[in-house]
Request: fold
Amino acid sequence: MTWTHDGLEAVIGLEVHAELLTRSKIFCACSAAFGTPPNTNVCPVCLGMPGVLPVLNRRVVEFAIRAGLATNSDIAPHSRFARKNYFYPDLPKGYQISMYEQPLCTNGWLEILVEGETKRVRLTRIHMEEDTGKNIHDAQVAGSLVDFNRSGVPLLEIVSEPDLGSAAEAGAYLRSLRSILQYLEICDGNMEEGSFRCDANVSVRPIGSSTLGTKVEIKNMNSFRNVERAITYELGRQARAVAAGERLVQETRLWDAEREETRPMRSKEYAHDYRYFPEPDLLPLAVPQPWIDDVRATMPELPGPRRRRLEREHGLSAYDADVLTQRKDVADFFEAAVAAGGSPKETANWITSELLRVVREEKLDDALVIRDWPLTPSQLANLSVLVERGTINRNTAKSLLPRLLRTGADPEALVAAEGLAQVSDRGALERAVGEVLAKYPEQVEQFRAGKDRVIGFLVGQVMKSTGGKANPQLVQELLRAALAQTS
Ligand SMILES: [Zn+2]
Reply:
C-alpha cells in the first residue's frame, strides 16, 4: 500500500551500508572483528599513516559479487575505487576509499512482499568501500575519544532507486535485503551493532507527477521499526509544509527516537563537495567472467526461491512461507524438523507463532541464534507429534516450550517425569464435569437460556480442576452431553 495524502505521494529511496563478515579488513591484514578493546585491531594502513599503501582483500570483492548476483545486478568487468574527501575525526586519512563513477554492480533489483503483493525494487548500484573509525562520546572523560578498530572494515553500499512508496514498503525492502545478505553469509545484518545501517531519502510530489520533489535524507535509525517510524513522521512533516505553502529544503535530518521526530542536522552535501577522484594507490579492478562463474557456482538457495519451494513442497501459505524464510536459520530449522517427522503445517505453526515469539521476547531478533539453541529440530518435531497423538494438549505443549528451549530436554521424557500427559479418562473427566456443574448453577442456567458462550467458562473450570491436563475436546463433549441430559 503506497502512502498518499492530500494529493501527494511518497518517493523513497534507501541507502544501506552493510559490514562484510570477512576476517580481515578491506585494505590491510587487521582483524575486522566487532567488540574487541578499542584500538587493538589497527596498523599504519588503517590508521592512515603517510606513505602506506592499501592492498585490496580478494574476499571482499567475492562477497560483493555474491551480493550483485543475488540482486540480479550487472557485474562490471572493470571498476574502480575513488577517493571521497572529507574531514572528520574518525577518518584519519582525510578521505575514504570508496567507488564513484565506476561501481562494481549496477542495474540490479529485488522483490519485496507487502500485504500479499510482490513488488520489484530497482537497485542503482552496489559498491565496496571502507568503514570509518568511531567517535566515542564518554561522559567519564573530557571530550571525545576515537576507536579505529572499525576503520577499514569492509562495507557494501547498496543504493536503491526511489521506487518505494511507503514506510511499510521501505521496511519490507530492508527485511528482504538483509535476509539476502544473511543467506549469502556475507553480513550478520545486526542493526543495533551497526553492521546493517540505513539512510533514507524521502520526498513527496503530486500524485502521478514524474519529477522528484526536494529530498531529505534521514539518518540515525538503528532498527527496522525506527526506519518505518522516521519515514512516516517525515512524510507527514513534508505534507504539512507543502499544505502551508512552505518551501522544503534539501537537507540531512536526524531521527530522534525518544522525541519521535526528525530534526535538521546539516544542509545536504552534494557529490561535488567530496572532490571525488580515482584512487591512485589502487589499480583499476578487473573481474573476469570465470571469477563471476566460480562465485555463481557457490551461491546458496536464496529466500525468494526458497519461499516458493516451501509453498509448493509443503503446502504452506505464502505468509507462513515468507515468515519462515526471512531468516536462513529459521528455514533450516523448519526443514530439519519436518525431516524429523513433524507435520509441515503443525511445525510451521509452532515456529511462526511460538518459537519466533520467544525469539522476540528474548530480543534475539537480530542474531543468528536458533542453531545454537539447546532445542533441536527433532525435539520440536517430537513435541508436535505428542500433540497430534493426543498425549498432551496444546496448552501443556506451549507451557513446556520455554523450558525445552533453555534446557534441550527430551519432550517425551519431560512429560512422563512430570505427569503431564493429557487426561482422557472418561470416568475421571465425567466426575470433574459433574463437580463443576454443581459448583456453578448460575452459569448452567445461562447456558440453558441460550448463552452458548458460557461453555467456554465451564470448560475452563474443568481444565483448571485437572491442572490443565484434561483433553479439551473431550471436556467440551462431556460438558455438552451432561448439560443436555439434565435439562
Ligand atoms: Zn590495519
Q: What stands out?
A: The two ends are 54 Å apart (CA to CA).
